[in-house]
Amino acid sequence: MEHPVSIMRSVLRFSVFFVILCSPSTLLAQDDDFVFYSDLARDWYQGGDYFEWTSTTEDNDDAVVNVFYRTWGDPTNPKLVLIHGFPNSSFDFYKMIPYLEDEYHIAALDFPGSGFSDKPLNGYNYMLAENAEIVDHFVREVVRFEDFALFTHDRGVSIGLAFLGDYLDNPSPGYTINYHFMSNSGMFLPLANLVPFQMALLDAEAGPRMIEAQAAQPRLTDGDPEALAFSDLFAFNDGRRALLYVGRYLLERQANETRWLEHLPRSPVPVAYLWGLTDSINPLRIPIHVWNTYLNDREVESSFWILPTADHYPQRDRPEEVARIVRMALTGQVPNRESESAFMRRYAAGRSADDAVYVGRSRIAELDFPSSIEYTPSGYRTAN
After folding, report:
1. pTM for the full predicted model
2. Is residue 343 part of a domain?
3. What local confidence, expressed as pLDDT, does residue 32 receive?
4. Would you place residue 27 in the very low, low, confident or very high pLDDT band (cuts 50, 70, 90)?
5. Is residue 341 part of a domain?
6. CA nearest 290: which of 186, 156, 363, 166?
7. Which residues 6+ apart lie within 8 Å of 344 measured at CB?
8. 172 Cβ partners below 8 Å, 6+ apart?
């Protein structure tokens, strides 16, 4: 049975999420008209910039959207690109970035429909495949990264896999992905545990009613700083109503998830796979399946980490620990197959209860014991 404190914590976290989603939004003619109630959100917005993107999805009729992005750190440092999930934005990384910005040049963007980017309504198609094209444009033409690591979370994992496929199939992409991080995601939907909110978004009748009911609720104006920041982000550019359209990505993921996952075995890019253990929407059965099916047998460097005290957002629940794993991977501290067993013993001896657990590769082979003692049904005997 779950501990009462854990139950209460889960209830509180869900309540904060629900209150955020139920805040109404102000339809903005101009960004300057927007009223911030969160210093965190205001500072995030003021630290960013925009680039224009013309949609490549046929049914969007060449619509042009403004895409928000930010960068941190010294441009001469190694590069790291952060890809956010649903229903949030690049702000999901606000706790993790301070642990890495002194060592890495970091870039993150808000995909259309999210955060401080444009959020067109009236049936705009927020496609995962197009988001992958936006990432390509972002690294080539906006931040101009030639060699970088890619950190993806939630919906962003599917974007990252689609982006990886485009990268692998392009003989001259113009850049190098040097590391690929993946974190909590419903990247294999048959094993996900979707909540009613996600399912309702896909219902042509129930979805609009739900969103309009939420939009009628009063907006947060004070309270918990993080909840207040997310409230501002959802209110910006009518983001709550945009969820109705962004949430349709599940249909595209379902149609393409196996094809996208099959990019992993053929990829030469090292992978670090991180998972918050207490995620109930994307439970541990997802990464276990993906690891065993697509990553375990790769010759290229691959590692699997479970964060025992993190939920769906490890980068917010355990930001310092996630940053530590990123740093270990990018500085050559992940073991190869030959040194993995010794690493696991050494690492386990020094970790605290809250630290990530390293999951080694599964190698099924008969053990060759270096012993002169042998087993027989009659007993253990010393070989002559």
Report:
1. 0.89
2. no
3. 67
4. very low
5. no
6. 186
7. 335, 358, 360
8. none
Residue 216 has pLDDT above 50, yes or no: yes
Q: Is 296 exposed, middle or buried (0-12, 13-18, 19+ CB in 10 A)?
A: middle
Q: What is the DSSP letter of 58?
A: G
Residue 353 lies inside a defined structural domain of this protein: no
Q: How far apart are CA 194 and CA 215, in angstroms?
A: 22
**Is 336 contained in some domain?**
no
d(Cα 361, Cα 368) in Å, to the nearest integer?
19
The torsion of the CA quartet 130, 136, 142, 145, rounded to 10 degrees, works out to 160
Pick from 56, 83, 257, 85: nearest CA to 162: 257
Identify the domain containing residue 255 by its residue range: 4-329
Q: Which of 244, 243, 245, 240 is nearest to 27 (CA)?
A: 240
pLDDT tier, 29 (very low <50, low <70, confident <90, very high otherwise): very low
Which residues touch 32 (CB under 8 Å, ≥6 apart)? Answer: none
pLDDT tens readout for residues 41-56: 999 999 999 999 999 9
Number of domains forming the structure of the chain: 1
pLDDT tens-digit map of 274-315: 999 999 999 999 999 999 999 999 999 999 999 999 999 999
Distance CA(248)–CA(62), nearest Å, equals 20
**Any residues with CB less than 8 A from the CB of 261 and at least 6 apart, and which?**
161, 187, 188, 290, 293, 294
Taking alpha carbons only, the member of 203, 199, 220, 137 closest to residue 174 is 137
| CATH number of 159's domain | 3.40.50.1820
Dmax (CA) of the chain: 89
Would you state the pLDDT for residue 368?
A: 81
Could you tell me the two tokens for 321?
Answer: 């620990």
For residue range 119-146, what is the model confidence (pLDDT) as tens digits?
A: 999 889 999 999 999 999 999 999 999 9
Name the token pair of 211: 């969103």
